[in-house]
């Protein structure tokens, strides 16, 4: 069985309000699969349905070959899941909670707990209640991979983590992928999705709008640029600029690849204001990747 996650016309509505509609996903063994979209798009709803915490209104889904409605217990035994908000027994220390998880899964986790807590800089002797949001998330991350599951599902794993810890988390993910694990994670953060994923699904207003292959993770570095020149007659006629727009505050465009070429070009002009940042996810994927209707392609 090469499909680790498979949904068919998966639909979940919350009474009258939309959750997700007609979602078709196919995640293969060994992939790092990103699931991105704006707030309220339906990422958590999809994930919670895959775990059997929510019952589909219609359609179906399988995880590791098990039906999410009929066989969710089998799924829970075999996967690691990190919810968006980690809440565990407040009165236990981080170390006690992780020992408990290891015992629950009947594994000796002591070495792994020691190694991962030191890599993530987590103090195991503190009560869960007293930990910061980021440190609670670290407990959740260790708990997710402790029992060596074949599939890891993370709901916004890096929100609340500082940049150094985020990098450690990326290394941990790469190790897991190297060990043959499948990773499915939701995110708002374009740069991490580009760095880590083989494929990415974009969800918007409850519907999948694209599934894209990132053949070389990390290769496509898109940046959104806003620039205002001192001389209002100067135009950014820069060869690598895409999606150029003139705004009240100057020009806005996107570039792909090395920013140094742009900086070299800008150095020949008098710049009053400049910002270079990660563009909104949808803009990148819809402008650059989606020429045709990719929802008909592989995996959707
Ligand atoms: N328990 C609920 N009752 C009613 N509507 C809900 C419930 N949970 C989610 N929704 C609605 O379902 C839609 C999808 O929400 P969901 O939490 O899945 O989005 P998300 O992509 O995970 O968002 P975020 O990035 O903000 O976490 C939203 O319109 C939300 O308001």
TrEMBL record:
GO terms for molecular function: ATP binding; ATP hydrolysis activity. This is Uncharacterized ABC transporter ATP-binding protein YbhF. Signal peptide: none annotated. The gene is ybhF_3. Residues 5-230 form the ABC transporter domain. It is found in: Cell membrane. Gene3D superfamilies: P-loop containing nucleotide triphosphate hydrolases. The keyword Cell membrane does not apply. PROSITE patterns: ABC_TRANSPORTER_2. GO terms for cellular component: plasma membrane. InterPro entries: AAA+_ATPase (IPR003593), ABC_transporter-like_ATP-bd (IPR003439), ABC_transporter_ATP-binding (IPR050763), P-loop_NTPase (IPR027417). Keywords: Antibiotic resistance, ATP-binding, Nucleotide-binding, Transport. It holds the Pfam family ABC_tran. GO terms for biological process: response to antibiotic. Belongs to the ABC transporter superfamily. It is a peripheral membrane protein.
